[in-house]
Amino acid sequence: MRALLLDMDGVLYQGEKAIAGAREAIIWCHDQHIPHLFLTNTTSRPRRVLVEKLGAMGITVSDGEILTPPVAAAGWLQQHIDGPVALFVPERTHEEFSSITVADKDTEEVAAVVIGDLGEAWDFARYNHAFRLLMQNPRALLIALGLTRYWQAEDGPRLDVGPFVKGLEYATEREAVVMGKPAAPFFEAALAQLDVRMEDTVMIGDDIRGDIDGAQKAGIRAVLVRTGKYRPSDLEQDVKPFAVIDSIADLPAWWSQLSRSSQG
Question: I need a surface site. Which of 27, 56, 212, 249 has the fewest CB within 10 A?
């Protein structure tokens, strides 16, 4: 093994609080010169805000070390779409789409509809507007910024983007192009950015489906942490992690032990 992909929410922090030992684990990654990239399905905030959030926790990263669905989607749309794109993402995430033509509220026909996590900003009118845009143009693509089912907030689990995308798929009878976890192209984009092979890489995550199953279907070994949205019942499912550790704080010891075993 020579590279790491790390989920953020539930692995490095939960809500506004860092997971114990996260800062030290990331410092260890830098000290060991291990190529790594942070993967997150967060669509409610641009990378600069995530950098600031981690910085406040003592974890130093740059924009380029974070791969988000909006960043991946903007690059894909720029290459494949000719025409305005309707964004159903939080206002401050719009900056990640500066390279494409974004439709305004009066645009009647769009080339694609991008669905992110709007949380409580979803209402019937807004959701129905996304549906109508897709129905008005049979060629319009439905772009999903991930298919995460839910995320673990400080007050309990909250619905994420996945259920809203699935509803539009059902209503419009078309399949979404997925730009986040658990879709294989998202993991492949991360490998390409690091210039590493899937067999040399390990994914660290708290979501048995989005992180672990998604990574393993892309050919990447995946380690489940017992923080964030982890539940003991995760280990009773059909998805079998490569390993399970208590938290990101245990990553350095686990990595070192595995390295010694492989050398022996």
Answer: 56
> Is residue 128 within 8 Å of residue 115, measured between CB atoms?
no
CB 145 within 8 A of CB 179: yes
pLDDT in tens, 88-130: 999 989 999 999 999 998 888 999 999 999 999 999 999 999 9
Answer yes or no: are the C-beta atoms of 18 and 58 closer than 8 Å: yes
Contact partners, residue 26, CB within 8 Å, separation at least 6: 12, 59, 60, 61
Closest CA to 38 of 12, 14, 74: 12
CB-side neighbour CA atoms (13 Å) of 133: 29
- Return the HEC string of 73-110: HHHHHHHHCCCCEEEECCHHHHHHHCCCCECCCCCCCC
What are the distances in angstroms from CA 5 to CA 39, 53, 57, 126, 192?
7, 19, 20, 34, 12
DSSP annotation of 9: B
Q: How far is CA 93 from CA 44, 72, 110, 232, in A?
A: 6, 13, 19, 34
Please indicate, yes or no, whether the overall pTM of this predicted structure exceeds 0.85: no
| Model confidence pLDDT, tens digit, residues 223-235 | 999 999 999 999 9
Amino acid identity of 41? N
Tell me the pairing of strands 17-18 and 156-159: unpaired
